[in-house]
Design a protein that fits this description.
The chain is α+β, with helices and mostly antiparallel strands. It is built from 5 helices and 10 strands, in the order βαβββααββββααββ. A hairpin with a 6-residue loop joins strand 7 and strand 8. The radius of gyration is 21 Å and the shape is elongated. The two termini are about 35 Å apart.
């Protein structure tokens, strides 16, 4: 990958389409030496050692069955690498994994190490953390997490018909959550990432199909507030619980996060957040 000498040829500050397929060519390397010339040293005479550590909170891909995987990733670039990576190009590159299927987590990590190392000109280290690992949690979302369910997914546009009830007629009261909520901004088309909590009382909702329904927002364009209201309305219409709360914590953007909460039976709600939020 041939580095470009100036950042003004990159995608930074320019309108860009949302890339849905893995594309390492999106990475835009910038030589470090131009600015180091101003400081009076070069790659062979650095007065320091160190790393550039990037923490990525909007990281996802599809497994072989089409089910999304969401993690937190940390990337460490050596300070003595000849190139740095322009930030918008890095984000676009990570987004290109969102709609691509991979056979394993290790395959994704291998792509990251190979692509980023080639772009910066030195070996890049990658650390991946699950969202429910103790060390990643600030608070734990209430209820049972659905993300470990082994499901086949092929519907990424909102489909309320996926919502079904189990055969049992007894009423239950349960709280469920998932970190696999993703939609796209209605204005920019760029991805919005969130974790969602659903608390209800009524006939039991089928957990596998509820997770498929939540994943079906993956290519849907709508604001955060509208997505939560759509989930609330679809569950009420399809599953008819006697009580329902839907709450989503979205990943911050530009220092702000939006966390809509809709309920027909409770006025206060636990707004615990994970490290992503």
């Amino acid at each position: 990958m041939k580095p470009t000498s100036t950042a003004n040829q990159s995608l930074l500050g320019k309108a860009t389409p949302y890339c849905k397929s893995y594309d390492p060519s999106l990475l835009f390397p910038i030589p470090r030496q131009e600015k180091r010339d101003e400081l009076g040293f070069d790659l062979d005479s650095l007065p320091f050692q160190g790393l550039d550590i990037w923490s990525a909170f909007e990281v996802s891909w599809l497994n072989a069955k089409g089910k999304p995987i969401a993690v937190i990733a940390e990337f460490a670039f050596p300070a003595d690498s000849p190139n740095l990576i322009e930030s918008k190009s890095f984000k676009l590159y990570l987004n290109s994994f969102n709609g691509t299927r991979f056979d394993s987590r290790q395959q994704v990590i291998n792509h990251w190490v190979e692509d980023l190392s080639a772009a910066c000109g030195a070996e890049v280290a990658v650390d991946v953390r699950d969202l429910d690992m103790e060390e990643t949690l600030i608070g734990r979302l209430p209820g049972k997490n659905l993300d470990g369910l082994d499901i086949e997914v092929d519907d990424y546009q909102v489909n309320p018909e996926l919502l079904t009830l189990n055969d049992e007629t007894d009423e239950v009261e349960e709280t469920l959550n998932s970190h696999l909520l993703k939609s796209n901004c209605l204005v920019t088309g760029q991805p919005d990432w969130g974790s969602i909590v659903i608390r209800y009382r009524g006939r039991q909702i089928n957990h596998e199909n509820l997770l498929k329904y939540l994943i079906s927002f993956r290519e849907h364009n709508e604001f955060h507030e509208q997505c939560v209201e759509r989930v609330f309305t679809d569950i009420m219409q399809r599953c008819r619980p006697s009580a329902l709360t839907v709450y989503a914590r979205y990943v911050r953007r530009g220092g702000l996060d939006i966390n809509p909460y809709r309920s027909n039976f409770e006025d206060e709600f636990d707004i615990s957040r994970t490290l992503r939020q």
